[in-house]
Amino acid sequence: MTPQVVNQNPVSKLRMERLRRGMRQRELAAASGVTLSHISRLELRQSVPQIHTLHRLARGLGITDLNLIIEDPAGESRGQP
Q1: pLDDT, tens digit, 9 for 90 and up, residues 19-69
Q2: What is the CATH number of the domain that holds 18?
Q3: What is the full DSSP assignment across 9-54?
Q4: pLDDT digits over 27-38, tens only?
Q5: Cα–Cα distance measured from residue 9 to residue 33, given in angstroms and rounded to the nearest whole number
Q6: Range of the domain at 62
Q7: What is the pTM of this model?
Q8: Cα separation of 16 and 77, whole Å?
Q9: DSSP SS3 for 58
């Protein structure tokens, strides 16, 4: 079993996953129910996300919460495209 490392910045991974899917912040806002302005502030590191916000954003991306907080040593996403 490969050891897992806790991601210290889940918002960076959130942004990476959003961009990998070709999704705009506006689309993520609609899919997650989190406001566009809040997503923007999070990605600019002007705000710190609460757990329930990360949960909603992960669901909006179609991934699990753990995908945002666990680093994959192989660099691969476990989320669905």
Answers
A1: 999 999 999 999 999 999 999 999 999 999 898 999 999 999 999 887 777
A2: 1.10.260.40
A3: -HHHHHHHHHHHTT--HHHHHHHH---HHHHHHHHTTSS---HHHH
A4: 999 999 999 999
A5: 21
A6: 5-71
A7: 0.75
A8: 10
A9: helix
